[in-house]
Amino acid sequence: MSEAIPVIKAVDHGTARLLPDVDRERAWLLTVDGAPQSYVDLDEPTHLEFEYTRRLGHVVDRAADEGDPLTVLHLGGGALTLPRYVSATRPGSAQEVVDADGALLALVAEELPLPEGAGITVHDADARDWLASAPARSVDLLIADVFGGSRVPAHLTSVEYARLAERVLRADGLYAANLADGAPFAFLRSQLATFASVFEELALIAEPSVLRGRRFGNAVLLASHAPIDTAALARRTASDAFPARVEHGASLRRFTGAAPVVRDADAVASPEPPAGAFSVG
What we know:
The chain has helices at 51-62, 81-89, 102-111, 127-133, 159-168, 186-196, 208-211, 230-238, 249-256; strands at residues 7-11, 14-20, 27-32, 35-41, 71-75, 94-99, 120-124, 139-144, 169-181, 201-206, 217-224, 245-248. The chain is of the alpha/beta class.
């Protein structure tokens, strides 16, 4: 078998690189302009390499009884790591993936094709535009992992966006978003305040070192009208290679403090990561 070689291609929003993992035969790292976007093992789609992706995997695992199919909307595609995970762990799930980088989607389709019958439909579209036209109360789980380079776009941070997300979720549906910030957490706190103005139940998953402000890093925001199984999530995230905490209730309200609700008129993208925080090669 010939050795896999890197694939480098200009896409709509930068330069994408697919880099083979020398330790796993059909595993690939996807970067865009040097920022890691996805890691996928085509032979083992349940392998979640990135810590934040593993935390989102725990969310998927606790979203319904084991093996039950879900209706999932993914905002942000990358190499389709989480859609592949859902398909493998919850056969029969109906999934839609929305990503504004059509050239990147085409590259992934060509180089990392989905298996037959995966139940995953991919759309080249803006995430917020898609939400605005999607059927109401149609989704069990909405996963947002949208980054323009290394930043969450401003139009996906406002209360107007949060209301659109809420509209497509079923009554007991769950919103999960991958965010990134560092001390003093102006962006992350504002996101918590914004989603708390739309949903009754919130939780936040992050490493203690990130929450203590020692470094810039990822945090997974969860929002729902129904209770979130924070105890089960806390047990799972605590046993990961890089343990994380699940903040909710009073401790999360203290962390949020008096942060303002973000509106379209004053929305800004998430902060630029410090040099080297996420870059690869």
